[in-house]
Design brief:
The protein has helices at 3-11, 18-29, 35-48, 52-63, 91-100, 120-125, 136-146, 159-171, 177-190, 211-227, 249-263, 266-282, 289-301, 304-315, 321-324, 351-363, 408-412, and strands at residues 78-83, 105-110, 148-152, 195-202, 231-238, 246-247, 334-339, 344-349, 377-380, 387-388, 393-399, 415-418, 428-432. With 433 residues, it is an alpha/beta fold. The strands form 3 sheets. A 6-stranded mixed beta sheet has the order 3-2-1-4-5-13, sandwiched between helices. Strands 6-9-11-7 form a 4-stranded antiparallel beta sheet, with helices on both faces. The chain has a 3-stranded antiparallel beta sheet with strand order 10-8-12.
Length: 433
């Protein structure tokens, strides 16, 4: 078998066999197939696509390109949740403790932020002392003991995806849905959970810009998961404006604490209740969405959800004093209010602009090895649908970088005001199952 024959077959619209896909993944992972041939195949897939069988095989081969996690020693149903990314998306840090406090076992491996999208691991690491590194044994023990652990992916899991992800990023093939779907799902399947819930975002602040593309991606991933024996569902959620009010690592942790104390933003909590009720049904704990919402509401009201989060932070070495008193988090060198020069109803807040400026303020990274300023970010004061008077604060800029003045114009352009009232954004649009 020759790699060039596989490339030309896909270039001409052919359907690859398991043997051909295995040859590519196995050879590329161990370095026998060079980057230039792998990038040629990725480009062929971008233009010609893959059918469902090809995508499932590609996902399965990537999943088994390295070690897989055996979670059989964890009692009960193991669940995982994944978001395709967005701005201010701290959903996992609110949702996972909520469902864990209801009896679900959350064994979650998360990622870091890149570009305008934040990363769950970075947000957790803004809590002093917290480690996102655990051995397999420690990971399993923590999930058994307190019901939840959120850690980084181990280097042994899915090495094919690590190589392909880096290659796609520099060869213009990131947008290929078969490659996106196999990348996400191979990691989820390698992590060994029983059920998977996907939050597929769309809009200005998301990777998928329109709902049709998000629906297509969700459908492919749900079919992959179910086809490989995992109970998989997806929620389509809007990322036209940032989720919640806080964008930036320690700023978002403060919002997480507020949410777990019952004071969360409406859009964030609606997404958590919707996703949480689906997870509880997937796990067989409840039978209806209404029943799940009641159970989740009680987990917030009783304080069980917050205590589950605190127990996780403590188990991973984090200083819970920062949760009990969020004022302990370090403040940025500059905190500047952006004042509205006009009045009207907020009809749009461009999530992409907010995310990109937040990154430039120090809250994110352009390259994976960039350092993050955990205190930096943006705190919104207004959301879509709110009325703004002249002189009102639209948002706060938090940064220690002195070039913030250059970014104010960009932030002013992120807001659109109109004279007539506008409805608030719907967050959850569809469920794909």
């Amino acid at each position: 078998m020759r790699m060039v024959d596989i490339i030309t077959k896909k270039r001409d619209g052919g359907i690859l066999t398991r043997e051909e896909i295995h040859y590519f993944i196995e050879g590329y992972t161990r370095g026998a197939i060079p980057d230039y041939q792998a990038s040629a195949l990725c480009m062929a897939i971008l233009f010609k696509g893959m059918n469902n069988d090809e995508i499932s095989i590609l996902t399965d081969e990537m999943c088994h390109s390295g070690a897989t996690m055996d979670l059989s020693k964890i009692d009960g149903v193991k669940v995982d949740k994944h978001s395709t990314g967005g701005v201010g998306d701290k959903t996992s840090l609110v949702l996972c403790p909520m469902v864990a406090s209801c009896g679900v076992k959350v064994a979650k491996m998360s990622g870091r932020g890149l570009g305008h999208t934040g990363g769950t691991l970075d947000k957790l690491e803004s809590i002093p002392g917290l480690s996102v590194t655990k051995s397999d044994e420690e990971f399993i023990r923590q999930v058994n003991d307190i019901g939840i652990a959120i850690i980084g992916q181990t280097s042994e899991l899915d090495p094919a995806d690590k190589k392909l992800y880096a290659l796609r990023d520099v060869t213009g093939t990131v947008e290929a849905i078969p490659l996106i779907a196999s990348s996400i799902m191979s990691k989820k399947l390698a992590s060994g959970t029983d059920t998977i819930l996907l939050d597929v975002t769309f809009g200005e602040g998301a990777f998928m810009k329109d709902i049709d593309s998000a629906r297509e991606l969700a459908r492919v991933m749900v079919d992959i998961g179910n086809g490989l024996g995992k109970n998989t569902k997806a929620v389509l959620s809007s990322m036209e404006e940032p989720l919640g009010y806080a964008v930036g690592n320690s700023l978002e942790i403060k919002e997480v604490v507020n949410a777990l104390h019952g004071k969360g933003p409406k859009d964030l909590m609606e997404l958590c209740y919707k996703c949480g009720s689906i997870i509880l049904m997937q796990a067989g704990i409840t039978h209806t969405e209404k029943e799940g919402r009641l159970m989740l509401s009680e987990s917030i009201r009783s304080g069980k959800a917050y205590m589950t989060f605190e127990n996780m932070v403590k188990a991973q070495g984090g200083d819970i004093a920062f949760l009990e008193n969020p004022d302990k988090f370090r403040e940025s060198g500059f905190i500047i209010n952006l004042i509205s020069s006009s009045e009207g109803y907020v009809s749009k807040i461009n999530a992409l602009t907010i995310g990109e400026v937040s990154m430039k303020l120090g809250a994110g990274r352009e390259k994976l090895d960039d350092m993050i300023d955990m205190a930096a970010g943006i705190l919104l004061h207004k959301k879509v649908g709110d009325y703004v008077k002249k002189g009102d604060t639209l948002l706060e800029i938090h940064t220690s970088r002195s070039n913030y003045k250059e970014l104010i114009k960009e932030l002013e352009g992120a807001f659109e005001l109109v004279s007539k009232p506008v409805p608030t954004h719907e967050v959850v649009w569809e469920v794909v199952e």
